[in-house]
Amino acid sequence: MQFPLVVDFLAGREYGACFVASSGWEAEEKVEEGFDMAVNATDEMLFLEGEAVSLRERAADREAMARSQRGDPTLALYFGDLSAHPVLTPSEESRVAHRIQELEVREWVELLAYPPVLPHLLERLRGMLNGATPREARVLARWPSRYRACGGRLDARRWGELRAAAWRVGRQLRDLDIDRVLLNGMLEHVEFLPRANGSCPRGMGRVVRGAGYARYLERVRAATRETSREKERFVLANLRLVVSVARRYHRGRMSLIDMIQEGNIGLMKAVDRYDVRKGYRFSTYASWWIRHAINRALADKGRAIRIPVHMLDTHQRIQRVVAEHAARTGEEPDVRNVASEVGLDEEKVNSVRAQSFDPPLSLDRPLGDDEGRRFVDVLTAEEQPTPLDELCRSDWQTEMNRLLERLPPIEARILRWRFGIGDDDELTLKEIGDKFRLSRERIRQLQEQALARLRRQIRGPY
Questions:
Q1: pLDDT tens string 36-59
Q2: Are 338 and 318 in contact (CB under 8 A)?
Q3: Nearest of 127, 248, 232, 278 to residue 189 by alpha carbon
Q4: CA quadruple 401, 407, 408, 410: dihedral sign
Q5: Which domains are seen in the chain, by residue range?
Q6: Integer CA distances (angstroms), 183 to 108, 114, 136, 180, 267, in order
Q7: What is the DSSP string of 130-165?
Q8: Which burial class, exposed, middle or buried, applies to 348 when counting CB atoms under 10 A from its CB (0-12, 13-18, 19+)?
Q9: Which of 26, 153, 328, 383 is the most exposed place for a label (fewest CB within 10 A)?
Q10: What is the value of pTM for the model shown?
């Protein structure tokens, strides 16, 4: 990744599918890889919040908060609550991040350091990992037999050895399970076992009904609560970062409070995935995820008529290719060149370019003139006749009725049915013949006779 591209990306200019190419979190690994490339290429550019926020940014934030207090009361209350959560210093940030990682390992330790359920959990873990369990799990798997050999009681030394083995496995599982998919699945499973009744695994029914299992569950819950508290503290300390990023994207497509809430989702995702051991500041890493969440929300929810995210991404890539070619050559490229560079066929490129990606305009929006008119007041409906058309049609209908009154009744009726004059629908010669019980040829003769009479009347003194 080139340095100017990274600078533009971090400055808020979206390139291709950097932000909007995923619906959900399916593209997380790509986002993670892109973030690592950006950090390496820019020598860890710390561009937001923390100690790196400039006085100008802080002044702009204060101005935004002041405007919100004059406008949306919900936003004013939210900004008021931010003052209760001070920003962490770099040393505090590092300490809290390390503690969160240790607490997540501790959750695995409390989950695995109970020999009566350990065989069942290891078997379930192997199924979830398709057999690829950590090597240290083999050592941990020996403890249930040792536990039974000791009569179901472990002294302090053996208990320490069991927890040390669980700690080594927990570290490996924590690094493997960044999104806590495995951990959350195992936590839900141990909570479910006491309520499983008849579906409880073989040999586990007696274990889960014992007092020891209740104490085991309490230790697991305590570890989970402590991890949640530290993560909440980390999130609250970085809420200002979300405001700073969301304010840059506030262009009217979504309200600022909605964009902040979407950014908060990205912030929580960043807290889950942040690895302090890689050496970069959390503000650098979290900004990436916050922007990803906001851009995803703008793509999914920022339009009155939703356009699929993959279509927005394709349109963005096509527009970028067209702009780059125009800048180089001074003329717009043909469809073949665009399709070749984007990697699509020409029909798909034409289809995307034919669609409108502009936001819809409200018919009730004011025109801004002194009369207070709306856009709908001056909009002309192409399918609706104008007053002049209605007047001409009325005059034509009057004159046509006057001419038809001079014809014999059967001829006048044939012309009305044949040409749909008045409220009648147009009928074929055969349909008219069926009504009069005459042949199609006889109806045609009467029609020609009636038209000849009309021509003479029009050419005559009439």
A1: 554 444 333 433 333 344 444 455
A2: yes
A3: 127
A4: negative
A5: 3-87+238-301 (no CATH), 90-234 (no CATH), 305-379 (1.10.10.10), 387-459 (1.10.10.10)
A6: 7, 16, 17, 5, 20
A7: TT---TTHHHHTTHHHHHHHTTS---HHHHHHHHHH
A8: middle
A9: 383
A10: 0.59
